[in-house]
Write a structure and sequence with these properties.
The protein is mainly α and 424 residues long. The protein is built from 20 helices and five strands. The protein has a five-stranded parallel β-sheet. Helix 1 packs across helix 4 and helix 5 packs across helix 17. The longest helix has 27 residues. The two termini are 25 Å apart.
Length: 424
């Protein structure tokens, strides 16, 4: 395990110049206009969403009702969003409708298969770190091992097949591919920031959306009310819902003759949720990634302002960027506050420069910390994945702090406590 990955040949980085006032290609504008025309039929109200979800599934039992308060708060956050477009309203409606339909299916599935609650979710490996700190690369490397279980993007979108599609995943994969084609048309540079494919290994917060207890919503647009709620409220129930969803998918595996496998999970949200995670997954291994947060925060704020074009036609870039600097500071502060509470024997700190110097050696360190002993097939699969996924092969974005109204010297002063503890 000594072969480091090699960066792809350098290419011109893309400088995104329309963060404040998004512009679109003719193909993208046609999609926007088509979806905007549907806005009158997509009211962002809880009643309308529940009515449509039941009508489209034939199901009425949404399970425990505590999610309704969170959903109401999320809808309020969208309602407060300046410059929300008709397209953005339709987009948000379609997402929430999908999550409610998924919830109905899960509740129905659990009623028919109560044995799911007895399935063990043993010793998951949980990656916590900001975007751009190596989390996605590490997650993908670990997930390349067929003896471990991870969440492909298509499965996160539709964890259970709808009636009539049992026994196949092809229709769900096709729908995911169609949706990705639309997203790539609307946000052509997003792939340079965060690669997304049908089989891309996705963050587990994609399973928490059905309980409206997920940081996923903060990635859609500027929803400070929702971000603040996640920060200020105990998220243990959300992670209990996640554990249940992992049980559902393991049950699905067993029904298809697949073996019981250990989960590999990942999300930036986990950085400020160490205690709730330990409450729900007491035998978890924690993999905490670290990188100089100055450049990370600039790229992350750029990504957040860029994705806002899916909901608004004008972005207050400095306000959004500075909000995300505050949130990054809060997440890193929470990490420093709770890091020593993690089980030392099952926690590994992954520094970005060490990881990039030798990817496979770091994977071995993670395996050792997790007490995991991979076989030859697992090792070959990880090495093969690395060989086909060189860093930067898709291109890159030219991240400029001045585009966001940020000052790198001020950011460095702000993040000094974290840098001195985890980066230097």
């Amino acid at each position: 395990m000594t072969r480091p990955s090699q960066p792809a040949p350098p290419a011109s980085a893309v400088h995104i110049t329309d963060l404040a006032r998004p512009t679109f290609s003719p193909d993208a504008q046609a999609i926007i206009d088509g979806m905007a025309a549907m806005a009158p039929y997509c009211p962002l109200t809880a009643d309308a969403l529940h009515e449509q979800a039941s009508a489209q599934t034939g199901l009425t039992d949404f399970g425990a009702q505590d999610y309704r308060e969170r959903m109401a708060l999320l809808l309020q956050a969208f309602d407060e969003l300046p410059h929300l477009t008709a397209f953005g309203r339709t987009y948000a409606f379609s997402l929430m409708l999908t999550f409610l339909k998924g919830r109905l299916q899960v509740v129905d599935h659990l009623k028919r298969h109560p044995e799911i609650f007895d399935i063990e979710v043993e010793a998951p490996m949980i990656i916590a770190g900001l975007p751009r700190t190596g989390t996605t690369h590490l997650h993908s490397l670990l997930a390349a091992d067929p003896a471990l279980r991870a969440l492909p993007y298509w499965e996160a979108q539709e964890p259970l097949p709808p009636p009539g599609e049992e026994g196949t995943v092809d229709p769900r994969r096709q729908r995911t591919g169609d949706a990705l084609n639309i997203s790539n048309t609307l946000m052509p540079y997003f792939q340079l920031m965060h690669e997304m494919t049908i089989d891309h290994i996705h963050e587990d917060i994609g399973l928490m959306v059905q309980d409206f207890a997920s940081g996923f919503f903060t990635t859609l647009t500027h929803l400070p009310r929702w971000s603040d709620y996640l920060r200020d409220n105990d998220q243990t129930p959300g992670y209990q819902f996640l554990r249940m969803m992992l049980q559902v998918l393991l049950h699905q595996d067993a029904s298809h003759g697949l073996p019981h496998r250990r989960w590999v999970l990942k999300s930036p949200q986990h950085l400020e949720q160490f205690v709730p995670i330990m409450n729900v997954f007491p035998d978890a291994t924690f993999i905490v990634t670290h990188r100089d947060p100055v450049d990370v925060s600039v790229s992350m704020a750029t990504m957040m302002t860029y994705t806002m074009r899916m909901s608004v036609d004008e972005v207050d870039v400095p306000t959004v960027a500075n909000y995300w600097i505050d949130r990054i500071d809060e997440m890193l502060s929470a990490c420093m506050r709770d890091h020593d509470k993690l089980p030392s024997e099952r926690t590994i700190d992954v520094r970005f420069d060490e990881f990039m110097a030798d990817d496979l050696a770091m994977v071995q360190r993670v395996w050792d910390t997790a007490g995991y002993r991979p076989g030859d097939e697992s090792r070959r699969a990880v090495a093969d994945y690395l060989a086909g996924h060189s860093r930067g092969r898709l291109g890159s974005v030219d991240y400029r702090p001045e585009d966001l109204g940020l000052d790198k010297a001020e950011l460095r002063r702000r993040f000094t406590p974290y840098i001195e503890r985890f980066v230097r």
